[in-house]
Amino acid sequence: MEEKPSLSSALFAGTRFDRKRFAGDIARFRTGAQPAAPAPTTPDAAPPGPEKKRKRKSKANAKKNSKKKKKRADGAASASDAVEGFSVFKGAEAKEAAEESVEVEVREDEDSAVVRRRKEAEREIERAAILRKRYDIHISGHNVPAPLESFEELVSRYDCDSYLVGNLSKLGFQEPTPIQRQAISILLSGRECFACAPTGSGKTLAFLLPMLMKIKPGSKGCVKAVILCPTRELAAQTTRECKKLAKGRKFGVKLMTKDLSQDGNFKDMHCDILVSTPLRLDHAIRKRDLDLSRVEYLVLDESDKLFELGFVEVIDSIVKACSNPSIIRSLFSATLPETIEALARTIMHDAVRIIVGRKNSASSMIKQRLIFAGTERGKLIALRQSFAESLNPPVLVFVQSKERAKELYRELVYDDIRVDVIHGDLTEEQRQDAVDNLRAGKSWVLIATEVLARGMDFKGVNCVINYDFPESASAYIHRIGRSGRAGRSGEAITFFTEEDKPFLRNIANVLVSSGCEVPSWMVALPKLKSRKHRVDRDRISFLTDED
Ligand SMILES: Nc1ncnc2c1ncn2[C@@H]1O[C@H](COP(=O)(O)OP(=O)(O)OP(=O)(O)O)[C@@H](O)[C@H]1O
């Protein structure tokens, strides 16, 4: 805003003000302090009145604006004849002149502060760009905060509590992964985000850490954060990870079990953080009066799967139930199709999009192979052969349905290997046991349906076998992503039959983009209209009708 010319500026127009002579007074104006030389305590030097105080206050702001100028003025004051200068205050014109001069300086100070801030901002943008290039982070959105250089920045930049930093180091997390570097700074700055990063790249910590920094442990009946996961196993795993990270703080971290969803008394429950699958949460909102209006932080993990499962309306109603206007929402997945992103954008405000590496690609730590097995029977022979040659447990074997999981289990259970199975017909306890047994090394091979493909973190899975060809490229990426996690290497073998051949193209392209070799005819196959591939397969049995 342009200032009106003051009376003094009109009076002094064209008059040269002797700055050197009045330097002491200028300094006094600017700093609000006594001049450097001893000021005479003459009766003329009356204590400043309210008006003088007001003016001094505004000049004190000038002091804040420029330490450099203060230094210069102080130097000038000590060099000048302070006594002579002081006497000039008696003259109103000189006083006005001094004020005018200081105003000019203040403007100069402000200008240089603006320039300095701009330069700092430019340096920050440059630093952020270098970090993003180094860690293969791609963003879209405006004013995106710089990625973290290290976990130490959580303290220096974001004032992170020491218990959390301690827990990070106890868990062995020394350096943030690329997705953690960028997503954490974005979420801590209060922005919403879509994040797409490879399987096993640490997305869970990327949303848990800022959540624990943002919310405070509270009282009964007030849920502050909600994490939605597509499967119960993943929800249980995320709850466990959250508890480990929150250790030492009195956060109420709850997993939405079936019992809780049906009979929970949420009003009397200390639950700061709730981890749930969509249907159970929806049930609790509708039937158990679960109030989510104070939720500050909402995460949709494996977000594409959440929307894909036909839960769009359920998710929509959960998002609406989290009605706090200052809520921070985020979406995480290793695959984020355009359609899902567009859908999600309709519920986000000014969200930043983060992609680590190439969008919708497999982890580069996995050695991938496609093996032609001819027929269903051929697949069983190939599997047994592969186990006989080299069984390097733990191994995960994916099939397309629970019936087929049971069939394959029946075939392998009498072989000389420790095999287990997990599918939707088992109780929650049995499913959890199967997961725990693989983790503990009690079973070597776990036969699984799609239920285990998303998010499950088995650190040492050496090999994933796609016994049944996956129904889409994203299903493939998530299944094989159970190995090659957290910087470890892994292997993925995918069997295909004559029936699967027309659907090879999508998967072959994933292999190519991760640098694995595939025969050229596979990528040259015609593009299919339908992306999904789910065939009716013959029963898994070594003894077929022909035998
Ligand atoms: N900064 C870190 N340093 C070392 N290990 C880490 C770090 N962050 C996470 N991890 C470990 O990496 C593994 C994979 O992490 P996480 O399960 O979060 O991956 P993800 O990206 O969510 O994978 P998915 O897409 O399959 O769900 C976990 O075992 C986790 O403990």
Automatic annotation (TrEMBL):
Gene Ontology molecular function terms on file: ATP binding; hydrolase activity; mRNA binding; RNA helicase activity
Coding gene?
Answer: LOC123187710
Q: Which Gene3D superfamilies match?
A: P-loop containing nucleotide triphosphate hydrolases
- Which GO cellular component terms are attached? nucleus
- Please name the InterPro entries in this protein's record: DDX52/Rok1_DEADc (IPR044764), DEAD/DEAH_box_helicase_dom (IPR011545), DEAD_box_RNA_helicase (IPR050079), Helicase_ATP-bd (IPR014001), Helicase_C-like (IPR001650), P-loop_NTPase (IPR027417), RNA_helicase_DEAD_Q_motif (IPR014014)
Class of the enzyme per the UniProt entry, highest EC level: hydrolase
Sequence ranges of Pro residues compositional bias: 37-49
Helicase ATP-binding domain mapped to chain residues:
184-354
Asked whether the UniProt record includes Chaperone among its keywords, one would answer no
Per the record, the similarity remark reads:
Belongs to the DEAD box helicase family. DDX52/ROK1 subfamily.
* Catalysed transformations (reactions): ATP + H2O = ADP + phosphate + H(+)
- Give residue spans, biased composition: Basic residues: 52-72
One Pfam short name: Helicase_C
> Motif Q motif at which residues?
153-181
One Gene Ontology term from the biological process aspect of the record:
maturation of SSU-rRNA
Q: Where is the Helicase C-terminal domain?
A: 382-526
Q: What is this protein called?
A: RNA helicase
Q: Could you tell me the keywords of this UniProt record?
A: ATP-binding, Helicase, Hydrolase, Nucleotide-binding, RNA-binding
Q: Which residues form the DEAD-box RNA helicase Q domain?
A: 153-181
Which Enzyme Commission number(s) are on file for it? Answer: 3.6.4.13
What residue spans carry the region label Disordered?
Answer: 25-79
SMART domains the record matches: DEXDc, HELICc
* Top-rank taxon, per record: Eukaryota
